[in-house]
Specification:
Length: 80
């Protein structure tokens, strides 16, 4: 077996992505319900909540999008 052939199967890969999305969603919704904050405060809080949950963490533009949404009160905190 070549080392390039070692990878998660498609089912496991899908679960990993679903789990990552759930962790992100929970962090965003939790912060959105915690009171008013600026986009920079939300970005810092999201980074703090997520950095230890992922290997090789680097916050990207997606995180800024969610921080802006939190600051602008645009996140629905209850599921319909």
């Amino acid at each position: 077996m070549k080392s390039s052939e070692i990878r998660w199967n498609d089912e496991a890969r899908g679960k990993i992505l679903d789990d990552a999305d759930r962790v992100l969603r929970e962090a965003v919704v939790d912060l959105a319900g915690s009171g008013e904050m600026t986009s920079d405060e939300a970005f810092a809080a999201l980074t703090g909540k997520l950095k230890d949950k992922f290997i090789d963490w680097e916050p990207g533009p997606d995180l800024r999008t969610y921080a802006d949404a939190i600051a602008n009160g645009e996140v629905e905190t209850d599921e319909a």
